[in-house]
Amino acid sequence: MSIAVSAVSTGERGEVDAFYRRELGRDVELEADQEVLTARDGGVVVAALRLCPEAGTLLLRTVVVAGGRRGQGIGRSLLLKASKAIGSRECWCFPWSYLERFYGAIGFVRVADASVPMALHHRWNQREGIPTYRSAMP
Ligand SMILES: CC(C)(COP(=O)(O)OP(=O)(O)OC[C@H]1O[C@@H](n2cnc3c(N)ncnc32)[C@H](O)[C@@H]1OP(=O)(O)O)[C@@H](O)C(=O)NCCC(=O)NCCS
Question: What is the residue with the minimal CA distance to atom 17 of ligand 1?
Fold first, then answer.
């Protein structure tokens, strides 16, 4: 297995559209201002995520590894690349609660519910998701 993780160019976004549709059974909006990262195996997309500017901050969204490829370290590799791409910017993520450690590995820390900006509440499934935040680094 040779996994290549990289940022996706505009011309490659169709492949990511198809990946999300296949894995999630729905369309995911890939806007021009979003940074999209993928992991590929033999050129085939096996995982993807999006960094989405919103409400004056950044959101890490739609982290998905292909159904048959989970538990092989691909998600971790993709997150490490995302960590570099986020760099010193602040970033929010609202993951499933059981993934707190997964995102914690790149600096996302669970924060108080009350600290979530109102403008981001619609991104947060408060029944199953937790608010996590990676602060801007000087
Ligand atoms: C969550 C997901 C992205 C993880 O990717 P992955 O390639 O399977 O994860 P990795 O093999 O790189 O595992 C990295 C670490 O995360 C942990 N982890 C992965 N999936 C986990 C799960 N479902 N529950 C708890 N821990 C999990 C692993 O145990 C591992 O921890 P370790 O370093 O202590 O061994 C992947 O399972 C997935 O696409 N799930 C469906 C979509 C989803 O739920 N996305 C996240 C939305 S918040």
Answer: 102
- Ligand 1 pocket member 16 (CB < 6 A): no
Residue with tokens 């997309």: 45
Beta carbons of 39 and 3 less than 8 angstroms apart: yes
> Does the C-beta of 124 come closer than 6 Å to ligand 1?
no
Quick count: other Cβ atoms within 10 Å of Cβ 98? 9
Nearest-CA residue for ligand 1 atom 26 is 99
What pLDDT is recorded for position 137?
84
Q: What is the pLDDT of residue 17?
A: 97
CATH of 3-134, one of 3.30.565.10, 3.40.630.30, 3.20.20.70, 3.30.70.20: 3.40.630.30
Q: Residue 118 carries which DSSP code?
A: G
Could you read off the pLDDT of 18-47 as tens digits, one per residue?
Answer: 999 999 999 999 999 999 999 999 999 999
Residue of 5, 45, 65, 94 to test ligand 1 pocket, by largest number of atoms within 8 Å of CB = 65
| Residue spans of the chain under pLDDT 50 | none
